[in-house]
Amino acid sequence: MEILSQILPFVFLIAIMYFVIIRPQNQQAKKHKEMVEALTKGDKVITTGGLLVEIKKVEEHFFAVKFNNDTEGRLVKDAVARKYEDEA
User: Fold this and answer.
1) What is the pTM for the complete model shown?
2) Number of domains in the chain
């Protein structure tokens, strides 16, 4: 019985950490992955570096993108921070 009373606070601490830290991070990562997979040609995205680019072609691991001055390049899918929504 003494061992159970010593272990029980650690079990509660781990459960609290799971529901406060780990689970929300996993849900956010899953939501971000779904957003990246749903991107199509013509969508505008903001990269993790802060660049605003337009997707020209969707490849397996990359996006072919166009910058605002007609410069084209490739962007790793992991570098997409979020989708850019026009405010107008």
Assistant:
1) 0.78
2) 2
